[in-house]
Amino acid sequence: MSERVLITGGCGFVGSHLADEYLRKGYQVRILDNLDPIVHGNIKAPPSYVNKEAEFVYGDIRDTNLLSKCLEKVSVVSHQAAAVSVMQSMWNPTRYAEVNTLGTAKLLELLVDRNRYPIKKLIIPSSMSIYGEGLYKQNDNEVFPNLREREQLERGAWELEWDRKPCFHEPTHEDKPLRPTSIYAITKRDQEEMALSIGREYSIPVVALRYFNIYGTRQSLSNPYTGVAAIFSSRILNGNVPVVFEDGAQLRDFVHISDIVRANLLATQKDAGDYQVFNIGSGQPISILEVAKKVIDSFEKDFSAKVTGTARPGDIRHCYADISRARKILGYAPNANFDSSIQELIEWVKTQSAPDNFETAYKQFGI
Ligand SMILES: NC(=O)c1ccc[n+]([C@@H]2O[C@H](COP(=O)([O-])OP(=O)(O)OC[C@H]3O[C@@H](n4cnc5c(N)ncnc54)[C@H](O)[C@@H]3O)[C@@H](O)[C@H]2O)c1
Q1: Burial, 74: exposed, middle or buried (Cβ in 10 Å; 0-12, 13-18, 19+)?
Q2: Which atom number of ligand 1 is nearest to the Cα of residue 223?
Q3: Is residue 46 a contact partner of residue 11, using CB atoms and an 8 Å limit?
Q4: Buried b (16+ CB within 10 A) or exposed e, 200-211
Q5: CB 46 within 8 Å of CB 218
Q6: Distance 83 CA to ligand 1 centre (A)
Q7: Which helix (H) or strand (E) holds 208?
Q8: CA separation (Å) from 215 to 6, 61, 167, 297, 336?
Q9: Coil vs helix vs strand at 45
Q10: Residue with CA at minimum distance from ligand 1 atom 12
């Protein structure tokens, strides 16, 4: 009898790709998902891309009775369900605390019954957002600047300073102090720390994977608050120009969904990573303006992105992954090629129709 994986949020972007891969590897897959309308619109059944070989259970992770039934005969729990927008979390903190923090607490509370739920692995998808600003150096010393002050942003002085002098971005490693700057990020940090703490106490092998900026097919195109590559694509699909904040030179780490999936399978199958956290990114920094250009080129358009020269309060300047720990302990090696993977994303986007909700969402920024 093959092992069974429970994927919470398995109808979403990451969860649905994970379902495909676990099935391919011979696992049975059970999905628990409430088809959140913010992600899926008003649908009553799983999106057509969700693998038909997976067992689908409709419901909310906060429904303890249902969750306990879903955990029966399960050996791996991949807890992907979450409310996922940084910006939205700032005006609806209750929802984020309830879904992400309380939802995870309820799952952990069940899992501590090791006799009833003898799972072999719990995977927690954490987020680069819990770092706040990335890692910087000044005179060869690591420094951890806070967010830029509003006054600095109003002057258009985008780069970070430490002690009133310039400091320089570096790949961010897992030991950088955590400085989450949004309610979403706070709930992701809490989720990670709660799971590691309970995991150690009750010997539940937990691995936390800190995803960087994921891109790929099935990313929600109508949700204006998530994945920037998807937002740019959705703008162009609807005849609009992508909008880039600041000067566009802010650096991020775009990691393809296939690499995220590989990292999850490695974490599932290798015990060496248990009770640890890992950055899962590409390890390659790229500017947001460069991403916008690549998306525009892939659509074969001849316009440029609109660069606003204004900042969103709470935004960080640079953060990209040091993936050496994941390489060493999990054997993780990202291998997606950015240009061809963006092209693949655009080919998929062209087959989709999705409203562009960006302007409504960002009205207050004068877009
Ligand atoms: N996509 C990224 O770039 C990224 C980056 C860092 C971390 N993450 C984390 O990865 C995980 C997966 O993200 P994603 O991009 O696939 O998001 P997604 O929004 O595409 O998928 C989330 C899924 O969870 C479901 N869901 C939401 N609330 C639920 C609830 N209360 N009960 C049951 N199901 C619920 C939704 O219906 C959706 O299908 C999340 O935990 C997210 O925080 C994602």
Answers
A1: middle
A2: 19
A3: yes
A4: eeeebbbbbbbb
A5: no
A6: 6
A7: strand 206-211
A8: 23, 25, 29, 17, 11
A9: coil
A10: 80
Residue type present at position 249: A
Beta bridge partners of 5: 29, 76
Residues in the chain: 367
Distance of alpha carbon 17 from alpha carbon 49, whole angstroms: 9
Residue with tokens 């090791």: 114
Going from the Cα of 175 to the center of ligand 1, the distance in angstroms, rounded, reads: 25
**pLDDT grade for 349, boundaries at 50, 70 and 90:** confident
Residue 354 banded pLDDT, cuts 50, 70, 90? low
Instruction: State which ligand 1 atom lies nearest to the alpha carbon of 9.
Output: 24
Amino acid identity, position 214 = I
Residue 351 one-letter amino acid = T
Which overall architecture, per CATH, does domain 4-221+256-282+323-336 show? 3-Layer(aba) Sandwich (3.40)
The secondary structure of residue 271, as a DSSP letter, is G
What does the pLDDT look like over 119-161, one tens digit per residue? Answer: 999 999 999 999 999 999 999 999 999 999 999 999 999 999 9
pTM above 0.90, yes or no: yes
- pLDDT(1) > 90: no
